[in-house]
């Protein structure tokens, strides 16, 4: 076991967790570095946010008796490609664990301040170096807010289990506040107005789950409050669910309309702030509750009890900063030269190749990171190079000249391909190819959408059966394969748990 290569995996999401679990432990020592000690099964987060499932059913621990995976809880802070070392910042007590991130945790610090903090941290033992033989970068992306004022501070996101817990507590707090006898009808209307910004699968599925909770459970507990509740989906595009064809997207829109969920496309959110709308005057008792003001370009200022934000992804600051300039090139770079006889030019400064639009790391079709000269004029014979021991996959890496979507399906397929070929030691044998297995979305009341990779489509109850079957199949551990259907049945019989904790 001494001659095993160490594969350091940055990230514990779909790509990182799959690589770590699939690598042959007799050939590789898999080491996961991540600020969270678990893998989150993201398709189930919307269900956990409304109590359909419990939070534990959407989690898989990195450390397990059944897997031979080493783990360090921390942030990757810097990479030295030549010496094959990674600088790690410990994150055992990180308060952001389990929460969606929208900005660099060092945002606002100058380069000098950051270096000072690094030195202080090193003195306290908070930074340490980790060596690797192969590096797999799967750090994922952050939630995109497009710089909209107040969103980072006041919106609710849905990328991790901590986000789901916050949403669940806020949702129930709105109903408890609205149920008090001192609350006016106007205040109830605003407290129970729920805005969802983003018409992709996450926003639509959460809206559907929220509607189910309100109409199946809360309607029996707070019957007098249901007339005041309202769910509204906002999106800047002309239609929601753009990854589905026109017929399925229209079916979802019409079903939402019948259920009383408003879908407002071509709408632009300009601000989200704490407090009631400025033009509204209320009594002191109304000011005891936290309201939010959502400013929409087409509608003005609206009072809402909660705003769930799901508008896409932005590049991880680690990719933007640490994985940028290569200080010293490793000796085993593979040159992609204009001439077959070209040699590695001396003293060339290399940089990681990035996509101009998304900032993602560009890889070849074997998922290996591509490098380009920082100054092209210094190396006329070399246009690109490949790092044979560093791979990038998941949301932070894209194969050059491809347009694969940033989905869990793509990330897990890349991870499985990489781990399988590393086990066989034949990464050069064949290129990665993506197989579209179809797209699913839950739209409420035991209805779903399914669009197959070959163009077939289903809608309604049969698609809902496929949706639930797919989630049970993809759930990793047997524990959760058992717990998920059990919770579905228990909550169907007894209703969802609305305890706040």
From TrEMBL:
Q: In Gene Ontology terms, what is one molecular function of this protein?
A: NADH dehydrogenase activity
Q: Which Gene3D superfamilies match?
A: 3.50.50.100
Q: Where is the External alternative NADH-ubiquinone oxidoreductase-like C-terminal domain?
A: 437-497
Tell me the ranges covered by the FAD/NAD(P)-binding domain, including all copies: 6-318
Task: List the Pfam families.
Answer: NDH2_C (PF22366), Pyr_redox_2 (PF07992)
Is NAD found in the keyword set?
yes
Q: Does the keyword Protease apply?
A: no
Recorded GO cellular component terms are: mitochondrion
Sorted keywords for this record are: FAD, Flavoprotein, NAD, Oxidoreductase
Could you tell me what this protein is called? FAD/NAD(P)-binding domain-containing protein
The record's family statement is: Belongs to the NADH dehydrogenase family.
